[in-house]
Amino acid sequence: KSYEFSKSWTMHVAATRFSYFSYNFCWCVRTLRLKGEDGRYQARTPAMAAGLTDHVWSIREWITFPAVQRQQDTTRNCPDKSKRHELDRATDHRDR
Fold it and tell me: Residue 22's closest CA among 46, 51, 49?
């Protein structure tokens, strides 16, 4: 057996992001819990403590959530080549 994610840089980055984001949204941290009015503690994730979400996400919910909200591209078929070039530069998301 091997750790394939550590042999390929792309897989290593993907595994690192998976653990980072699932930790922040899906795993409750004991030191972040809040004591309620009834004396019981409310479990919280780092994302809840930062105000990014209001509930603990399941892994299924996190994986199926669309990461990028895309808008309909109205300039892709535009005859003006300078606008198409600007759009291509604005949407280039490769790591540099």
Answer: 46
Q: What is the pLDDT of residue 3?
A: 65
Q: What is the dihedral of CA 80, 86, 89, 90, to 10 degrees?
A: -120
Structure-model confidence comparison of residues 37 and 67, the more confident one: 37
Q: Is the pLDDT of residue 96 over 50?
A: no
Half-sphere exposure at residue 29, Cβ-oriented, CA atoms within 13 angstroms? 12
Instruction: Say which residue the tokens 């005859």 belong to.
Output: 79
Give the integer Cα–Cα distance in Å for 1 and 34. 42
Nearest CA-CA partner of 75 in 87, 64, 67, 66: 87
**pLDDT average, residue stretch 83-93:** 51
